[in-house]
Write a structure and sequence with these properties.
The structure is a homodimer of 161-residue chains. In chain A, 41% of the residues lie in helices and 20% in strands. Chain A is α+β, with helices and mostly antiparallel strands. In chain A, the strands form two sheets. The first copy, chain A, has a three-stranded antiparallel beta sheet. The first copy, chain A, has a three-stranded mixed beta sheet with strand order 5-4-6. Chain A starts with a helix and ends in a 19-residue tail after the last helix. At the A-B interface, helix 5 and strand 6 of A face helix 5 and strand 6 of B. The complex binds manganese (II) ion (2 copies) and zinc ion (2 copies). Residues 97, 99-100, 102, 136-137, 139-140 of chain A line the site of one zinc ion. Chain A binds a DNA duplex (30 and 30 nucleotides) through residues 16-23, 38-40, 52-57, 59-60, 79-81, 157, 159, 161.
Chain lengths: 161, 161
DNA sequence: TCTCAATTTGATAATCGGTCTCATTTTTAG
DNA sequence: CTAAAAATGAGACCGATTATCAAATTGAGA
């Protein structure tokens, strides 16, 4: 049993919940897929691997992962929640390329310290924060003309009239 | 005519759009209400003041304000977009109290500089960013037991089972 | 000022991510 | 093994926002 399975089981038993094959299966795939996955993406991935677990269960289970401290939910501005394993993963923030939807993780202790300083000045107690830098990644700014090297998002229709 | 009305008109004419009484009325109320307003809140405020403008037009017009550079859209994690006038307003980020939904604005050039530094390190070009610190404000941490002094958000049902 | 094509509006239908409901199945303490 | 509690899948439902469309308004040019 992986450490992650243990963490999940601990949370499950301490909350009088139940260990199910669905939860184990979802945890497995969740750990093996790319970071910042959406519920829908995870659902499709599981289907590809032969699973018949329903989408509602995917949502429920991702929420459970978050409640157990295994994962965290993120929003990168495309209207879908994304999830990433955070157990044993250093805290970090994100650079989000709006061209190709690539997500680059970074860690900056100076910024974290300054956030705390700001909070102190306002007598505010931080328990979470969100720092995202939106723009264009290196790859995308090099290929000035081409459009979407690693597209992941649906392009939303824009009424320009 | 206020400077804001001029900016809007400039955007409107340069895009072959039309100046309407609705747009002027919405801009007026938008400028006179509190910052970080939702479309729904602005709609109700206008109704209170006797307007009969439809909600769809409020949404359309707030989007227009954003397109013209007068306003910006924000998301503070409660699932509704909020808007604030940013013309002639210094860039700032936000402390969001999850107890009372108070929003405190702050400005920190050191953090902004460090963000740019991070971006440079990753050869990334930032064109916008989002920094929000979530937690408990001074007022709320003082009244340890009381719940919602200036409640603004609907409490979402949480299935704890 | 009049005309009229283009734009905007209000009402409301549609969309979309996500949650809830409920009948059925699975888990697990005893 | 039993039975109560919890979880599941299917699909109904929800809330914020956008799209549709007929009717009204706007404004550039005559
Ligand atoms: Mn990450
Ligand atoms: Mn603000
Ligand atoms: Zn990119
Ligand atoms: Zn507060």
């Amino acid at each position: 049993m992986t450490k992650e399975e243990e963490i999940l089981q601990a949370h499950i038993t301490s909350h009088r919940l139940k260990v199910t094959k669905e939860r184990k299966a979802i945890l497995n795939v969740f750990m093996s897929t790319e970071r910042h996955v959406t519920a829908e993406e995870l659902y499709r991935e599981m289907k590809n691997r032969g699973s018949s677990i329903g989408l509602a269960t995917i949502y429920r289970t991702l929420n459970l992962f978050c409640a157990s401290g295994l994962a965290e939910q993120r929003h990168f501005g495309d209207g879908q929640a994304r999830y990433e394993l955070t157990y044993n993963v250093h805290h970090h923030d994100h650079l989000v390329c709006k061209q190709c939807n690539r997500i680059i993780e970074f860690e900056n202790l100076e910024i974290e310290r300054l956030q705390e300083k700001v909070a102190r000045k306002h007598h505010f107690t931080i328990y979470s924060h969100k720092l995202e830098l939106y723009g264009t990644c290196e790859a995308c700014s090099k290929e000035k003309s081409k459009s979407k090297p690693k597209s992941k998002a649906k392009s939303k229709k824009q009424t320009t009239k």
